[in-house]
Amino acid sequence: MNKLYIGNVSAEASEEDLESIFKQWKIPHSGPFLVKTGYAFVDCPDEKAAMRAIDVLSGKVELHGKVLEVEHSVPKRQRSCKLQIRNIPPHMQWEVLDGMLAQYGAVESCEQVNTDTETAVVNVRYAARDHARLAMEKLNGSMMENYALKVSYIPDETAAPEGPPSGGRRGFNARGPPRPGSPGLGARPKVQSDIPLRVLVPTQFVGAIIGKEGATIRNITKQTHSKIDIHRKENAGAAEKPITIHSTPDGCSNACRTIMDIMQKEAVDTKFTEEIPLKILAHNNFVGRLIGKEGRNLKKIEQDTGTKITISPLQDLTLYNPERTITIKGSIEACSRAEEEVMKKIRESYDSDMAAMNLQSNLIPGLNLNALGLFPSGAPGMGPSMANVSPPGAHGGCSYGCSPYGAEGPFWASMLSASSQPLAGQPESETVHLFIPALAVGAIIGKQGQHIKQLSHFAGASIKIAPAEGMDAKQRMVIIVGPPEAQFKAQCRIFGKLKEENFFGPKEEVKLEAHIKVPSFAAGRVIGKGGKTVNELQNLTCAEVVVPRDQTPDENDQVIVKISGHFFACQLAQRKIQEILTQVRRQQHQQQQQPKSPSGGQPPTPRRK
C-alpha cells in the first residue's frame, strides 16, 4: 500500500518539480516519478512514508497554481470493500464514528492508523463493495465538526474481481489455475459461518497477546489459520478490550485457547492473582436460543464441561452495543470446551436465521434484507437511535434482529414479487391489524408521540393504535396501512421495540398475532380443499394461520385471517396469503377480459367479402 497517486497536477509540472516538493517536506520515495497529463505516480519505501505524504501534501501544497491531491494508488481490481478515512476530528468518540460508518452498510472492521497528524485516520472494511462505494461517495469531502473528511480506497489483495466467475476476460477462458495467494484461492481461510468469535480480555494482557513487534499475534494467526483483530484503541481507559477472531470453528477455538494460555502465563509472571474467566461477546439475537427453554441448553453445557456460565443482563444493552457478555469460569481446558459448545449454538442460530432470511427474500424478490442489517456483522455493535434516522447497515436499533432505519432511497428493486405487485402500477396498499400487549402502547407511541411518528415516516406507512375495547383489555390493536415494504419495516420495528423494552422475557421469543382481511369468496382458496392449503402454509412458515369458521363478512364482504408467530413467520404467512389473493384477482381479471360470446354460444364467423 506504498504506491501513491498524485492528482490535480499542472501540465507545466515536471518530475523535478515533484521531487523537489518531496525533498522539501523530507518525504522519502523509492523510485522515480511517473508523470502523466494531469496526474503522477510514485513509490514510497514504506507505509509510514506514504501516509506522511498524504497527510502533509494532499490539499495543502500548491504546484504551479494547483493544489495537489495525494492518495493511495489502488488498481481497479483491488477497489473493493476497504477504505481509508482521513482528517477525522481528533476528539471524535468511537461510538459516533461507528454510527456514522454504519449508515452506509455493514462494517466488518474499523482500525485506527498511527500517524503524526493531529487528526485521526482509520482503515475501514465494509461487508460489500456497494457499501464501500456509497460511503466513499457520501463521506469524501463531507464536513464533520469543521473538518473535511478525506476518503480513498486502499488496496484489497483479497478482493475477488468483478465480472464473470470464470476469472477470464470477457470472451476468453481463464488461463491456467489460479496462482497461490491469488483471489481465486482466497488469502483468508474459508469461514463456515459469518459469525466470528469475539472475546473480551483484560487490558493489561493485550501487550502479551500482541508480543514484541507483533510477533506473538502473528504466530497465533499462522498456527490457527485465522485473522485476529485486537481493538485496543477502542474505549480508551477501559479495563477490557475486545478481540475478534475470523476463522473456521476449529480455528477460532484454537486461537481462543492459545490466547487463554498466554493470559494465564502472563498472570503468573506478573503475580496477577485474580481469576481470569473467558468472556465471549454474542449478539443479543442469539442469546435466548443459547440459554434454551428454562435455561436447559446453558445448564447442559455447564454440566458437560464443568464450568460456571453467566450472561450479562438485558439492561446492559444499548443501541450502540447489542452484544451480551457470556462469562465462563473454570479451568482453561473446561473453558475451551465450553467455548466450542457456546459458539456451536450461536452458529446454529445464525444459520437458522439466515435460512429464514433467504426464504423471506425469495418470497419478496428485491427486498434487500442485508441492507436492513438483519444480522450482526463481525464488527462491534453499531446502530442508530430513534432520534437519529440512519441509512442501512447499522444494527442494534432493534434487538429482535432488524435494524429499523433504512436507506435514503427505497430498499426494494423496482420489480416486486407477484405477491405484492398489482395488475398494473405501484404495489397495492395492505392493511394489517397487529396486536400488542396493552402495557406496551406507551413505548410504541413514545414521548409526545415522537416514536410512532418517526416509525411511520421511516416505514412509509400509516400507523395508528385503536382505542381499547374495554378497561381490562390486555391487548391493543395497531393498524398498519401501507405497501409490502412498509409493512415489513413497520412490523419489524414493532417486534423489536417490544423485545428492547422487555415486554417479553430474555428466554422468550416475541410472538404476536396479526389479522388481515380477505374477500369472503377467496377465503376458501386460503383454506384449500380439506384444509390442505392452510396446513401447508403453517408448515412452510411456522406460523399459526386460522380462518375462523362461521364468520359474517363485513360491509366490504371481507373476512379475517388470523396469523400468530414470530416476526419472520408472520411475514412469510402474510406474503403467501397475499400471493394467493393476487392469483385470485388475476384470474378474475382474465375472465373479465375474455370477449363475451353471443347467446348462440359460438362467436360469429366473419363474413367473406
UniProtKB/TrEMBL annotation:
Residues 583-600 have a biased composition (Low complexity). Pfam families: KH_1 (PF00013), RRM_1 (PF00076). One of its GO terms (molecular function) is mRNA 3'-UTR binding. GO terms for biological process: germ cell development; germ cell migration; mRNA transport; regulation of embryonic development; regulation of translation; sex determination. Residues 2-75, 81-156 form the RRM domain. It comes from the Eukaryota. One of its GO terms (cellular component) is cytoplasm. Its main location: cytoplasm. Residues 158-190, 583-609 are annotated as: Disordered. Keywords: Cytoplasm, mRNA transport, Nucleus, Repeat, RNA-binding, Translation regulation, Transport. It is found in: Cytoplasm; Nucleus. Belongs to the RRM IMP/VICKZ family. This is Insulin-like growth factor 2 mRNA-binding protein 3. It comes from Poecilia formosa.
